[in-house]
Amino acid sequence: GGFDEHFDRMAGEDTDLAFRLRRQGYTLLFEPRARVTHCPPRNRLRQMWARFLLFGATYPTLQRLHGDLIGPSVRVTLCRRWPWLALPLAPLLALLDSLGFYKRSPALLRRYWYALPGIALARLAWYIGMIFGDAPQIGLGQRR
Fold first, then answer.
1. pLDDT level of residue 87 (50, 70, 90 thresholds)
2. Which pick of 91, 102, 120, 132 has the fewest CB atoms within 10 Å?
């Protein structure tokens, strides 16, 4: 079926497609030699921040559509139900997520230790996107 164009922001369609393919029995593989070119480029901090805000804002939709594959999340519930509590905790949660990523892949920590601040910043933007959702004041990307 390809990408679902009902996503009103340019985020989440690829994840949705991957979940739908998995549900149909396809196995997804990682190809490290593959190259992807994004237009427009996202090579500035502000562009990356806006992108991860979008990912966070889109995540509740993905969870609603694919909860059987994603599963429930205490952190998502925290962000959506108690944003006033989630906001001050977001930096700590982002750091814990980042360290958890490296804990699951210790070889990556040794090889790419310098990526930790960027990963933590991306996770922080994701949490802010989750907390504020589609609020215009966070400057989420462009509509289609």
1. very high
2. 91
Is 9 strand, coil or helix? strand
Distance CA 87, CA 84 (A): 6
Report which residue type is found at 15: T
Nearest CA to 79 out of 26, 18, 123 is that of 123
Measure the CA–CA gap between 66 and 83, rounded to whole angstroms: 23
Helices (H), 1-144: 13-23, 45-70, 74-81, 83-104, 106-111, 116-132
pLDDT tens digits, 63-74: 888 988 888 888
Contact between residue 22 and residue 73 where contact means Cβ atoms under 8 Å apart = no
| Cβ contact 13:7 at 8 Å | yes
Q: Is the dihedral of CA 95, 120, 128, 88 positive or negative?
A: positive
Give the C-alpha separation, 112 to 136, whole Å: 35
Q: Pseudo-torsion of CA 67, 70, 72, 76, nearest 10°?
A: -110
